[in-house]
Amino acid sequence: MVILGLCGSLRQGSYNRRLLQVAEAKLPLGETLDVFEGLTQIPPYNADSAAPQAVKALREAIIAADAVLIATPEYNSSVPGQLKNALDWASRPFPDNSLRNKPVAVIGASTGLFGAVWAQAELRKILTTIGADVVEGELPVGQAHDAFTEDNDLADPGLASALSDLLDQLLHKVPIEADAAAKHFERGVLK
After folding, report:
1. Distance between CA atoms of 191 and 184, rounded to whole angstroms?
2. How many Å apart are CA 147 and CA 19, to the nearest integer?
3. What's the pLDDT score for residue 5?
4. Model's pTM, two decimal places?
5. I need a surface site. Which of 23, 67, 94, 148 has the fewest CB within 10 A?
């Protein structure tokens, strides 16, 4: 199973990129998380323009993935513009909506106390409107500068457990082909 990771921060050393790395380490054996690296190449959404190559690459990555995990920072109490722009391109025009019925979970980290909770709530609302199959709940990683261990985990055991639970919920939303179901039961992905 492949999960596509989208990082709402464009910084290479961002806390949200690190949060995606922690999530990848928590996935069951055989499951992978591939982070889409092309958000900086996506131009502002324009319904009068044909989808440029960067947008086609994003749509193809979403379609090819079994699920999507988005890690978002919070800018001015909301979703970063580049991330929102990418979601607009991925979901428009409606017949080309690559996120329709796609299982999606949202997590977030910020240096403030609240861990990007407003951005996460706003993003879940946007994704629901788009038609994605959104996991309820959030993972607010506040004071992100102190939130990670040297061995690529979350310092707070409660947050680490909550991330594992959220990933489990995301994996449970992925439709399983009948012949593949036995493999997933064997690995303990499904309970």
Report:
1. 9
2. 10
3. 98
4. 0.91
5. 94
Rounded Cα distance, 98 and 131, in Å: 10
What is the pLDDT averaged over residues 63-85? 96
The least confident of 10-24, 120-134, 171-185 is 171-185
Class of domain 2-187 as given by CATH: alpha beta
Q: Which residue has the tokens 């609240």?
A: 114
Contact yes or no for 70/33 (Cβ under 8 A)? no
H helices within the chain, ranges in order?
15-26, 53-64, 81-91, 117-130, 157-173, 178-187
**Residue 114: is it exposed, middle or buried by C-beta count within 10 angstroms (0-12/13-18/19+)?**
middle
Strand partners, 5: 35, 69
Joined together, the tokens standing for residue 155 give 């310092």
Taking the domains of the chain in order of start, what are their residue ranges?
2-187
Q: Phi first, then psi: what are they for 174, rounded to 5°?
A: -75, 125
Instruction: Kindly list the distances between the CA atom of residue 68 and the CA atoms of 82, 99, 111, 155, in Å, as whole numbers in the listed order.
Output: 17, 9, 24, 24
Q: Under a CB-based contact definition with an 8 Å cutoff, are residues 16 and 29 in contact? A: no
Q: Which amino acid makes up residue 179? A: D
C-alpha 173/C-alpha 177 separation (Å) is: 13
